[in-house]
Amino acid sequence: METGGNSLPSGADGVKRKVCYFYDPEVGNYYYGQGHPMKPHRMRMTHALLAHYGLLQHMQVHKPFPARDRDLCRFHADDYVNFLRSVTPETQQDQLRQLKRFNVGEDCPVFDGLYNFCQTYAGGSVGGAVKLNHGLCDIAINWSGGLHHAKKCEASGFCYVNDIVLAILELLKQHQRVLYVDIDIHHGDGVEEAFYTTDRVMTVSFHKFGDYFPGTGDIRDIGYSKGKYYALNVPLDDGIDDESYHSLFKPIIGKVMEVFNPGAVVLQCGADSLSGDRLGCFNLSIKGHGECVKFMRSFNVPLLLLGGGGYTIRNVARCWCYETGVALGMEVENKMPRHEYYEYFGPDYTLHVAPSNMENKNSRRLLEEIRNKLLDNLSKIQHSPSVQFQERPPDTELPEADEDQDDGDERWGSDSDMDVDEDRKLIPSRVKREVTGPDTKDPEAQKGTVEQARGSVTDETGVDVSPMHIDVPTVKRE
């Protein structure tokens, strides 16, 4: 249902922003298994809050078109995708060798509908990228996406298919440079690894570092070859609070936007960095977490918001509801409306929860050292990308032709819209519009040429969109 999705002015011309929201009603039915911390049910809880706060009526709401095999294979290996498609709980005992090979089993279990789940969440992220590419919205949201640990040939950290990499590859068809920012408590290793040797994608991850999954993300990991200095890692310790977090986030991201000048931004909003998360150890409030979304939104660059981790599911729903309001430029009431999952949010029944009094182990000195080191790294790519600046080729106006798909335009188009339930259309809005203007920084006039990486291929637009040049698992990191 397309109802406008208007929010704050998107620059001096006063054009309203449009927000696209991707949601499949079936996504909450998937079940990783008893005792597993990843619960897709949190997406249904989030959607219920959005409906009863009246936010859905301010967005274009789309049911994602499931990603096909060939979509997933733009990054993932064919045999891995074939395995995900074929394995079932009943047949997995006959495929023990492949289970081990593809790291499927404990953290990443085989469950009913596994492949459909992957197709759904990946389809939402790629669909959001396509909407942004064609100027059909300013911000696209897929809270079921953001599964940043999946690798080319293996599952990892509850993630099977890396929808983020697939979405970035889609954005690269239209944009010279794409920025990826990760505020999940875990390092965004799968995305960083995928783009470790290219200067067309910068990855910035803020994460717990130390004896903590996945164990990567040292500040000294900066990218390789053409990608040197295009990976930024912000290693943090337990208990970081809003003030400390933003003392790093805002100056670093501000400098990244100035130096890298991306045409589009992907923000992974993993909610396990919130205070009180079942698997986390940070102390961010929902407003502090949402401030990152607000800051990214202020640059007026096409923005894809994705989910990720988050294991205290009532707080995940709270967070992503609040951040949807931030995307729309709308202030959401703290008092929660009654809805089908209302009992999850007692005893206070409020949207916001207070951070705890846990110790912040991130000293001011440590934070200053991290900030100074990363700003110094960014100063070394002042003339990025490392090619002579000239006018960029014009963007293509239509989706690329798909020889396997007769209705190529329709596949990711408006026909995939999901109607909002009739009874939800009439729910009164519980939001107030934001009245302050955005902190505009308009990198509309992007410049630069596409530098082809060795061993890569191009599509018919001439833009390098192949994942081949970014997958260098044998490279020794500096």
TrEMBL record:
The Histone deacetylase domain, residue ranges: 36-324
PANTHER family in the cross-refs: HISTONE DEACETYLASE 19, HISTONE DEACETYLASE HDAC1-RELATED
Biased composition (Basic and acidic residues): 422-445
GO cellular component: histone deacetylase complex
Chain residues that bind a divalent metal cation: D184, H186, D272
Active-site residues (renumbered): H149 (proton acceptor)
Statement: the UniProt record of this protein carries the keyword Flavoprotein: no
Organism: Hibiscus trionum (Flower of an hour)
GO process terms (BP): epigenetic regulation of gene expression
Top-rank taxon, per record: Eukaryota
Span list, region Disordered: 381-478
Keywords for the protein's UniProt record, in alphabetical order: Chromatin regulator, Hydrolase, Metal-binding, Nucleus, Repressor, Transcription, Transcription regulation
EC identifiers of the protein: 3.5.1.98
Catalytic activity as recorded in UniProt: N(6)-acetyl-L-lysyl-[histone] + H2O = L-lysyl-[histone] + acetate
SUPFAM superfamilies: Arginase/deacetylase
UniProt name for this protein: Histone deacetylase
Compositionally biased residues, Acidic residues: 397-409
Signal peptide location: none
MF GO annotations: histone deacetylase activity, hydrolytic mechanism; metal ion binding
Subcellular location: Nucleus
Similarity annotation: Belongs to the histone deacetylase family. HD Type 1 subfamily.
InterPro entries to which the protein is assigned, alphabetical: HDAC_I/II (IPR003084), HDACs (IPR000286), His_deacetylse_dom (IPR023801), His_deacetylse_dom_sf (IPR037138), Ureohydrolase_dom_sf (IPR023696)
Cofactor list: Zn(2+)
Residues binding substrate, per UniProt: D107, G157, Y311
Name of the top EC class for this enzyme: hydrolase
